[in-house]
Specification:
The protein has 821 residues and is of the alpha/beta class. It is 62% helix and 6% strand. The longest helix has 18 residues, at 341-358.
Length: 821
Amino acid sequence: MRAGELLGRERERARLRAALTWAVDHRQGGVLLIEAPPGGGRTAMLRDTVDVARQHGFAVLDRSDGSAGLVIEDAEAHRLPPGRLLVTVDDLHLAGAVGQELPRLRQHTAAGPVVWVLTVPTGEIRPPVRRLLARTAVLGRVSLDPMPPEAVVRLVRDRLGAEPMADLLSLTATAAGNPLLLTELVDGLHEERLLATRDGRVHLVADRLPSRVHDVVRYWFGVLTPQAQHLLQIAATTVGDTFNVETVAHLQGETAARLLPAVTEVTAAGLLRSAGDQTTFAHPVVRRALAEHVPSSVRHALRGQTTGMSPPAPAASPAGAAAVMPALLLDTATVPGLLPSTVAEELRHRLAVAAVACSLSGTPAGATPGLSATDPAGVSVQQIVGLFGEDEAAVRAAARAVVAAHPSGHADADVLAALCVLSNLSWAAGELAEGLRWGRAAVRACAGPVPADWRPYPRLALAAKLAEIGRFADANRLVDEVRTDVARNALAGHQAPPLVVHARILLQAGRTGEAYEKAQAGLALAASSPGGWITPHAQAVLALVALRLGEVTAAADYVWRCRAGGSGLIAFPSARVAWCEFGVAVARVGEHRALDLLLSRLADLLSRRSLFLEEPAAAAWLVRLALADNNVALATSVAAGAEKLSAQNPQFDAVRVSAVHARGLLDRDPSALRSAAGSHHDPWAIALAYEDLGRLAMTDHGPSDREVTEPLREAASRFEHVGARTDAARVRAMTQSAAPAPDRVAEPAAQMWLRLSDTERLIMRLVSEGLTNGQVARQVSLSPHTVNYHLRALFRKFRVSSRVELARHVTRHSSRGADRR
């Protein structure tokens, strides 16, 4: 068994173990079925099940070569050992004479306590197997999904003994969670010295696929029919990860109907999957390997045939220039990075063509501009390409220079791009007024001679910004205008972005169900967008919707797809994906381990001011989690960050309320929490503020007091209203179980001392030494107000009314060593 192949399979392993336990307890046989796509780890899961069976006292007959008939012969000849028996048949679909053997297999399964463990590829359950499953006790049926992202990171870390950096994780994401592809990719990169390790971190030194991956792909490719092979080669070479079958049919001189058997075969083999009206490669790394198997001269010729086709094929490179400008214009959260040289060159060519079409920068209509740095079109092109870079100050300076070089009121493509970059960089830096000023100027610039397919994006970017500060009506109006213009100008490839942006706005407004519908519709249309760049944005919104609804597994799946699908796209990342990944971690592994993840792999999230704009409750939620984990330093840092953003933008209530909520939690200030609950524009954040108010009141009042019950009831109602059923259930459970158990009231002081947090013990010791609240606050890095709240809670716990009585408990329990851990 390869190390790491079972990472992230805890749930599936538990189901198989439970089935074996049931078989032992009930002395009944049956079938355990394990399904997975090629390389999905079904053999490793079978071997693990065998090990567990032996621990339960099973005798094991291993027919992992698929020879089911030999087992039947052993049974009929009475050569099977007595007692519990487990029989394995790996790759049942390859077993000879399956149709004849399975009825006899079923007879012996029913006749005695025999457990059969069968493995088949996903989608390869043939009629004889279906009949067996219909007539036989099925103890368990497990389908192995792609490895979750955290398991992929663990696998890479374990195999390489170092922390993987972003470039390596981006490459491993193209394996789409397939255990075999992942292990062959990582081991091959190591063997071929394509990795370098420094300071405990490993990164790529060359971006090429190792021979191990090519060997796997050749094997999978070799078992297909010639028609299926031809389909894969054409698709992989010409149309990218996602494509329209009609496009491939046109290239092959066939109809889509004639390609149906080949498409069905390749889909059943787990190499392709359906994505709405499009078809996509299940593993982008497989598409890349297949394309590399075709000689470069042939690839070039095939790609040339796609020019002028109807329907148009997506760009051959998912990171192509067609995706660059929409992504740049809409980006609101990050600095655009340097472009790969091939993409930059393609972008120059596209911009030169656009210069002719729009008569940009004085280029005469009908002229054919070169890329000279002296002609107007060449200058415009170079200025736009110059807006991509890693140095924010340099990018800002370049953008300001472009704007300053043009007369007032005159704007064309380079000015529009510069205005959008200035707006987006200002917004990401927390300069909200500047971000809106430049954004509105960009919208006005759309009336000038700019490419028609650029015009939707400045308005969508402005709409996203307005929604983040609670101006939903203005944001929705801009989105409606964009959708009308897209339809009027027949911009078929640009229908998805307005839907995705609208979905995000609806989610922020608490209209969760509508947000889900819009995001799904946007995702279905995303493949038609240039380069598919909007797909990760749609998946990020769906991940947030799923998390809001309490569907953690679905949220994790969308995060995984977003990470994997966006690895090769020119789509600048926002804080949403990392934030959702953190939320999934909190739900799955608990706040302590999730905070460890936040402070290590997702540490840059804390430095993004855009997080507190995209997620108004983020600061308060982080403060709550940090305090629950006794991480006062983190809680203080988050609150200070929110307050800094608020101080930078005093005219914007949205950021002020976010800061007030966070500080109210840190200082245990009910008036601040009450103010936040009444002022947030995000309905989920309002519900969270009411919950925080009820939690705080619970430490000062009895559980039945109105100060506790009213805010908690309000929180539960508001969570329910936005579809956050898990949050609502948590709050309702809190109101029902808030009353202390009878024996807890009279809990001995010694036990109470052991239950205290480190912060509470430290405050008690400092108070016993005679320090004032202000002096204690400086010692423990809290505000005097927070120290006062801690003291009041300690008075209630120990049933005392003075600092002197509290000090006696410190002396008594410290002398007994009761504070030892």
